[in-house]
Structures are given as structure tokens and as C-alpha cells.
Amino acid sequence: MNAEQVTLKIDGRDVTVAKGVTIWEAAQQLGINIPVLCHKPSLNPVGVCRVCVVDVGARVYAASCVRPAENGMNVQTTSERLERDRKTLVEMLLADHPAPCEKHKQTHTCELELLAEKFQILQPLPKGQPVPEPRYWSPTFLSRGQDLKNALLPEDLSPRRAQKGTDFSNPSIAIDHRACILCDRCVRACTEVKHNNVIGRMGKGYSASISFDTNMPMGTSSCVNCGECMISCPTGAITSKQEVGVQLETGEKLTVEQMLEIPIFQGISSEFLKRNEGCVVKRKYKKGEIVCREGEFGSTAFYILNGKADVFINTPMAHVKSDKGASGGFFSRFKHFLVGKKDDPREEGARKFIPIDAPVDLAMDNPIAQILPEELFGEMTCLTFQPRSATVRAAEDCEMLEMLRSVLQVLQKNKKFREQLEANYRERALGQHLRSVPIFGGIDDPKFVDQLKQRVELVHFDPGQAIIREGAEGDAFYLIRVGCVKVSKNLPGGDLVLSYLTRGEFFGEMALLDRSPRTATVSALDHVEIVKIRKTDFDFMLDWFEDLRPKIEAEAKKRKEMTERMTRLAPSTSLDDFLAQGLMHAQSLLLLDLERCVRCDECVRACADAHDGVTRLVREGLRFDKYLVATSCRSCMDPLCMVGCPVGSIRRKESLEVIIEDWCIGCGLCAQQCPYGNINMHHFQVQGEDPEHAGVKKAVQKQKATLCDLCTDLKEPSCVYACPHDAAHRVNARDFFTELTTQQQ
Amino acid sequence: MLCRELYEIQEKYGYIPEKEMKDLARRNNVPLYEVYGVATFYPGYRVTPPPKAQINICRDFPCHLRGAVKLRDKIEEMVREVGGEGVVVGGVSCLGQCDGAPAVQINDASYARKSEKEILALVQEAIAGKKLHEQHFEPMAKGPFKSDPYEGGEKYGALKALGQSKDYDGIIKKLKEAGLRGMGGAGFPTGVKWDGVRNCKSDEKYIVCNADEAEVATFKDREIMKSLPHLVVEGMAIAGLVTGATQGYIYIRHEYHDQIHSMNEEIKRAREAGILGANCAGSGQRYDMEVFMSPGGYVQGEESALLEAIEGKRGQPRVKPPFPVFVGLYGKPTVINNVETLAYVAPILIKGMDWWKAQGKNGCVGLKWIGVSGHVKKPGVFEVPMGTTYREAIFDLCGGMLGDKPIKAFAPSGPSGGFLPASMLDLPMDFQKMSEAGSMLGSGAIVAIAEGNDMVELALNATQFYRNESCGKCVPCRVGSQKMVDVIYRVMEGKGKKDDYETITRLSDTMLMTSICGLGQVVAAPIDSVVKHFKPELDAKIKG
Predict the structure, then answer these.
(1) What number is the average pLDDT over the span A714-721?
(2) pLDDT at residue B306 is higher than 70
(3) CA-closest candidate to residue B537, choices B447, B413, B452
(4) Which of A345, A486, A488, B250 has its CA 20 to 30 A from that of A560?
(5) Contact A81 B478 (CB under 8 A)
(6) Which residue does chain B place closest to A195, by CA atoms?
(7) In CATH, what number does B53-127 get?
(8) Do A50 and B460 touch (CB under 8 A)?
(9) CATH number of B369-450
(10) Which domains does chain A have, with CATH numbers?
(11) How do B334-338 and B206-211 pair as beta strands?
């Protein structure tokens, strides 16, 4: 006999295998399948589930998956006792397992539950039907009485897996710790197979669990979404987030093989792509065909395979203006009409471009541009369900991939795809993007862009991640490429949101100009792509382009003053509730003196009369002392209305008041988001270009958002004027509360 | 060594901040998850800042029998009264101070052998944020000891003689003939183990002394390391020369501050005297050793889990075979022996095999260190002839039962040997006879239990200890220990069902046969012994 071979008996049958082969593998050669949960032939065995134990004639059983076969061994893989012990192990695991778990529900492939069915612990049931509780005992963590605590000192050993529950932070992979049986398959898949080194075990004993890095949510850990853990998981603990039904119904479905032929999908695990079949389709567009319309809701992104497309905004460039009617008098109906900036110029800064959800921005004076092959658009709509920011029309016959979020996020984590997008961005859009920053706007020197193009860093941030922290040293200047960030300052009363910035806006200049620590924290609200200009490059720019310094300094000064003003407002009172409600920031707060108010609702009617019969005022709200703060725009501390505006047309003016810019596309997102219901949508009939027939004009219904306009055209807001009891006042919040608190003291 | 570095970080910050974990991972070129996994595995580490004061009361049964519950209540009440913000009161696994029960741990230092008043005074100081004076424990066992061949004279005689003779095979032969067996509990013949390592071909071999002593009620090694540290160093050095190992580690539980100190001092002295080092005792061979402070946990006493800890991993037992004799520390052949076993090597070599054999009684060979706690008048540590009966230990050495109450039961080896009825007190401390009686000699951790105590409650307490200390690697132990606690808990609550007997048997059988290590295999020992010897108590609860 060869020295490198061993011969043993398994269930009475002889088998000869190479030295080092495990009993489990040797049994396979004989066609004996020993049940197992933690072992998978592609992974190194660890022998932790113990389901594969066999009798080798020793004091205790041996785990066959990890025990090497030895010469002369006599192995029993089955006996009444072995079967009973295996069954008990499965029962134990099942007691803490939410049967049916997600995997079993969807595909009937949870290995634990299949084994339970085989052992007749669980009856094989039709899909989706509830499963009876295990026979012996029910999940422990559901009840843990306190009454015997003193007598017995039972340790409050927290069942961490139950506490941790689910983790949906990863875009494409769902974690359900309750279904986890700690088989360590994902741990091995992540480290041994893929060398990504993210998943491990944390804690000890019954409260042990798998965790990512330092117990981070999977979505913010260093996970690269390779999907290997999901493929290796025997239960519903790690599953694909792709939910049944959210497939793209139309378009040409791509098979895994077809996907892998497209360069951007190369390098992604084919199992992962398989799970996403139907979540990406190929579409053909004839010249002139509309791909998507501005203001529409959607959940997909597009990637152009070939052909060019036009992207444009089809809503008139104007804002809503109210004017008193010809008949005069305050209670006559006001007319609302759209005015453009030529007729009614407003403070708009030096903005020349409208930021949209595509690699290009649109010029303010001619909002149309082209998107080229190998470019992606609709990214923000897909990731955060923002309304479409612009209309896209095929400029020639095109082929595009339309994809759902799961696919886009897998792609975004794919190095190759990112590199390609970033190269495109640098080549095609960065220059324009840099120029679209108001302060860089006047620089026509081509060297400026050339200098920066290759030097900037393109960085990605996940929702909630801090980009810069207050108090830290300033080391870079940032320009937002995709997404929305929150600028906040930590104050004794809590975090004060200074502003939300979106595509095309910049931050981080102050600390670079005066070498002071960062004055605010900037964190990502959604998936944010940032252009980072390092301090050395920034300084170099300032030296090279002399015009730049005064511009940046002026902007920095403005922001600094605004910050100072806002922070001065905040700590002057400890009225936490009011702060939390954002009232301190109301420039013009409508207060109703409840001692005088007889609840006649004249103010509400006056507001309705002044605004097309729709009131922007509700006589409800927060009470403070004898005052009622009526609902109208409060220019909140945390202006949620500004989050997610697809074209960034709602913003805070320097006077802190919230304003809606002319390029509002009327999607209505801000109105939905205002927690106080203070934003209204106005409908207008306008002559517009028919998007489907270039050059043809037709009457179309458009809408624009409006806020309480403080009746700025009148001497006094109509609500205040209308109050017959002198109970309604428009006041500056800060002055008012300062006075009030002084009085109280 | 990752574990040591983590300790250093914790010394500096009071806990292990995430940033330091990241740096540590980078420095050691290990994945971040691994550092985090290690830091959250061991009870000795914190990954969040410590509270102002942490007061832990031992929750295991020797302290439980001596009023730990009442003490914990008082402490909790005290903290509530002063509104002790930032003060955390909790439980802790056996601190190895059962002879001074109830033991408490305040801010990582152990306090015992104190009256309730004294303990409460300490707690008060801790709540006030004062730094406490650490308690140093005088040896409980008084010499002279039969196992100390030097009795205060010149030490290391056996090692020095070996350094000259280099008769390594002779040592193994002598140990085999003397019948020296592992004193940590398993009783494996020491000579056979050493022979195995000696016969391995390897560029490096290790000697590891298991001084983790974290099994409930076990505290005898505590005394040996305090009173006879030179015998431990000598035993390890002899093992080093015999097997060809050049490096040794003595793995001491982190709560044993005094012992870590005494062993470090002894190693220093030995090194200065040329006993350890490049020319170990004049043999021309290198052998040196150091103390490794355990990051905590009972399961580290399992030999392969202990090796994992030294290697800086999560202290989970390895699947065996291969055994550490062949694949041990860093994959090299390794001798792992208990403190007591190693301490007997020099006296056997000096005084001879015949002397050793004559030390035993009732047909047994050699000596045994035992620790007696529970309801006895004078708890303590004793060096006794092997074969001494449990009755002699409790009634002769410890002065009988507290308050002269009748004895109901005793645990011969902490929780691992289960609870035996008073009728079995005349059993001798003998590996063979104890095994035949369905129990075990184990580590000589004897606990006396007076009449009037609830055996089911004690079984629950002991099972909870295993549940708390399970490493969680394998299913039967991780889940089974919790399910066993659940079943007994349910019975204690009066909600027991008839088929709970079957549930207990099935859990017990499965854990015994399928667990990776000894911990999982003995989880059911306490409840099994209650079923066997005290079934009426269980019946009363299940029926009622």
C-alpha cells in the first residue's frame, strides 16, 4: 500500500483515501452523506456545528468534517445515539432560529430548516406557511424573569444576536443575526476566500455574534460587497436584499453571462449577479424618444452603452409672484404669476449652472447638455428616490442599461466601474463642474482646470459619515459632485444645522484661508461623491490665480458672518423646545397673543384671500407663555425642506429666510418634506416646448413651489393686518424672545 | 503578543479605544475584526470607557453558599441610596478566593476574607471615587511542606544535578515509574506527555505551565505559586531541558496579582542565579521563561484555548487531535502541565520514587494539594496524602461544619464532579475510585454543603457558570449550556414539565458526546448528579 494513503472502515465498508483526507470526504467517496451545517467543501473545515459527528470508537464523537482519516479507523456514521444527538443539535439551533427565516421563506433552502425537516423536527411545509414551534423549548430571549434574580443571581447575559436583530445598512445584503448559527462560514468566506478581512466573531459564549470590523453596521464597514458571505451562509442570516417583485418589468433582461460580457460587470461574483437578474435591463431608444422626465419619481439609474442623449430642463425659469388685484384693497384676491429674473431680479448670486443628477450641469441661460456613452445618470434618483432632476431625450438611437439600486450599489463598489466613471468625470465634467462653482466662475484660463483636473481626489462618503469635523485641522477644500451634505455646528443646546449643500456647492474654505480649525462639521446625508482639493493644491491655486483669493475670501466672510449670526441666536435662550422647533431662526414669526385672540380665524381667511384661496397659515402650533406660534414658514434650524431637492433650487438666503429659486422643476419634494406643511405647490398653464416633439410649443401644466412670502409686496402681512383684535404679530424671534426672557427674569 | 499589547493600551486609557485597535491591527498585520474579536472575547478587556466604580460580587456557588446574594443586595442598596452615578454593580465568575467567601472585585482588584462591614466600607470608598488599597493575601497553607525538598535551604538542586548529568531519559523514566499524573483535573501521566514532546523533531518546542486556575472552588495553585514558586520554575526548567524546549510561559489568571508578582520575582532570581537563561543550570542548553497574564475566562484553562490566548487569538479550544504535544504553541510541540504537577517534579527527583509512593494512603500514590470551601469552619488549602477521604478533609482539616450543622452534600471537584451526598464522604481522593463513583478527583476543589440547601438551585448556579464561561465556538456547549440553564430555571420557577427529565438527559448526552472540549462535556455534570443522587428534590419541584 502506498505510504501516502490510508485505509479505513466506514459503516463496515473499506475505503482507501489519500493521507489528510477527512472522514467526511472519505464517506462521500462511498456515497455516504454525513449531514453538516458549518462545513462547505470550498472552505477549510472548522468543526463547530458538530452535526457531522461520527463514532470513531473514542470516549466522545469526532467531527468528521475536520478529523483526518487514519489507517485502520473504524467509523460509524450512523446509530440511534448519533441520530439522536444530531437531532438535538438541530433542535437547539432551531430554538433560537426564526423559522422560517428569510432564506427559507423565499427559496426553501435554509440548510438548518431543511435538516430539521429531514429529522422530522419541522414538517416539510408549503412555502410561506407558518412553522410550529420546536418541540422541546422555545426561544430563551423572549422571556427572562427578574423575580428569581436575588435568589439565584442569573446573569443578564445579553443574547447579543437577538439584540442586534437585523442590519439593513448594506445596500445589497441584508443581515439577520437572529437566523445566524455561528457556523463561521461567512468569516472564512470573507477572509480565506476573498481576503477582504471584514467579518469576524465578537463576544463570547451564548452572546457571541458575527460582526463587521469593530461591530460596525455592515453598510459603513470596510465591506466591499463581494457577496461571498451571502453565498456561503447556510441560513437566512445573510441574504440578498433583492426583494421578490422589485424587478424591472420591461426591457431586455440580461443573463449573468450577458452581464459579464459588459466590462462594468466584470469582477463581480456571478452568484451575486445571478441574484440580481431582472434588476438590470437593456433598453433601446429611438432618436427623440424620452428616457425620463423631470419631476417624475423613479428608482432607476441609466448607463449609456452607445449613443448620445440630450438632457434639459423643460420648466420655465421663473418664480411665483403675488400681486394685488386691479380692484385694490387688501381683501381682494391676489393674482399669482410667474416672473423671470429679467422682470423681477432676485438675489441669486453668481450661479451660472443648475446642478442635475447627471455627469453634466446645465447652463442657467440655456439649460441643455449632452450625455455620452459610458456615462451614468439618474444616480441620485436611484439611490435616494429623488425625483428626476431633468428630462433626458435620445439625441440619436441609443442603447442604455437601466438598473435598480441593488445593481448600482454593487457596481459602485466595483473598483473597475468606479475607476471608469471617475476617469470620465475627470475628462468630461470636472472642468465645467469646477467652473460652475460661483467663485471659480470668472476664471477662463484653461490652465486653471488643467492644473486641478489631475490633482484632485475623488472620494465617496456613506450616509451619516463625517467629511470634516468641527475643531479639526483644515487640510482640504471640498466640492460636492453627487449628493447632499449637512453643515452643522455643535452648540450647548444641540447640533445646529447651518445649511445643506448639494451638487456644485463647496465647503472647507474657511479653515484653509485663515488656518484656523474647522468651524463646523460636514457630514454626508446620502451617498456623497466629493472632489477633494488638498491644501497644498488649494494654496497653489490661490497663488497662481490672483483673482481667486478676493472671491473666496468674500464668500468665506459671508459664510462666517452667517454662522456667527446663527450661533449668536441660538444660545441667547434656553428654550429648548423652541430651539428644537427652529423658531429661534424665524425671521418673521407669526405670534398670536392668546389672551387677546378670540379664535375668529380672520388671519387664516386673510391669508387664504391673499393667496388664491389656499391658506399658508394654520392657527395651530407650539405654545409659549401666552403666545401661540402659528404655522407658517419658520426658516427652521434644520430646514428639512432643503434635503434632496433634485436641482438645489430651494436654499437659505443670507438673511436666513428660505427661498425657492427660479429653476424649481415643481417636483413637490420640498412640500412633502416640510414638517409643518408650509410649502405649497402652485399650478400654472404655460406655453412650453413639447418634450416629445422638439421645437413644438404647446400648453402644459407646470407647478412651482411657494413658501410664506410674508406678503412682501404689502406693508404688513395680510394676516396681521386682518386681525381685528390686535392679537397677531409678526416679530423677529430673537428680539422677541430675548425681551420675553428678560422680562421673566 | 496581541493580548499583552491590548493590556498595555488598556493600562494607558482605562479601555481599548477603537483608534488604538486600528493601529494595533496595522502594526501586527492582522485584520481589524480579529483585534476586535479578541478584545471583546476576554472579560479582562473593555472596549468602552470604564465606569467610575465597578463592583462585582462573585456569583459562583462557594460564595453563593456563604451569603454572596445577601451581600450583593446590600451593595446594590447602598449604591441606590447614595445615588451612585457611574457605579456599576455586577457579578463575576469565581475569583479563586473561595476560602475567604464571599469575594468581591472592585475596579479589577479582588477582596476577600473580610467581614460584611469591611466590604461595605470598601464599596463606600469606591463609590466616593477613592483609590483603594489593594488587598494582599497571606498564604492560607502553612509550611513546612512535604513537597518542598529544600525547606528554606539552597534551591534548584534537582535542576542543577540534571544540568550536570544530562540524563534526560532517566527523568522521564523516573516520572513514569513514580506514576506522576496531571493534577489539573485530567490526570494524564506526566512522563508520557514529556516523552511525546521529547521525541518530536522540531526547531522549537515550548513548556507552558497552566496556572489559570479559574474553575469554581479551585485555589490550591494560588498557594503553591505564593509559597513554593521555585518548585514551579524548577519543574518547568527540567521539562525544558528534558524535552529540548527553550522557552516557557507560565499562564496566570489576571486576578492573581500576588502570584504574578511572586512568580515574576522568582523568575528574576533564577535568571540572576544562572538557573534560567542561555546556559540553563549549567546544562549548556538554553531555557528561559516568562509570566503570561491571562486576559481572563475559565475556558482558558483548557490547554488549547490557553495556547490560542498566548498566540493573541480568541481563546477558543482547538479541535483535537492534533494534541498540543505534537502541535501546540505556534504549531510547535508543547508540554502543558498544571502548577501542582510541575511542582512535584523536583521533590520526586530529589526524594525518590519510593518516597513519593509512600506519601499516599488507602492504596494511593503521592501527595495532593486541595482547597476546601463552603460550609466548613476553617476553609483553606492543604497538602494531603493522595487517598485522604473527603470526610477527613472536611472534618479533620477544616474543623467540621459551620455551626456544627449536619452535612448534606459535597462537591469533590468544584462543579465538574457534580454534587455527591454525605453518604459518599468516605470516598478516597483517588483518580480511579472517584471515576468509578461517577465523579472525578479533578483539581481537589472540595466544597461542603450543609443541610437545608437546595440542590437544584446549586445545580442551576453551577450550570450558569458554564453557560457564562462557554467560549461559544461549538453549538452543543454554546446553545446547550443556555438551554440547560433554561430548563433548570423553569423547574426552579415551578413550571417544570414531566418531559424535562428527558430534555435534561438529551441535552446532557449530546453535550457530553459532541462538544469540542471538556467544558461542554461537563456542563451537565451538576444537574446529572442531582438527578442521580437528589432526584426527590427535582421531583418535588416538577410535581409541585
Answers:
(1) 74
(2) yes
(3) B452
(4) A345
(5) no
(6) B31
(7) 3.40.30.10
(8) no
(9) 3.10.20.600
(10) 5-78 (3.10.20.740), 450-570 (2.60.120.10), 576-744 (no CATH)
(11) parallel
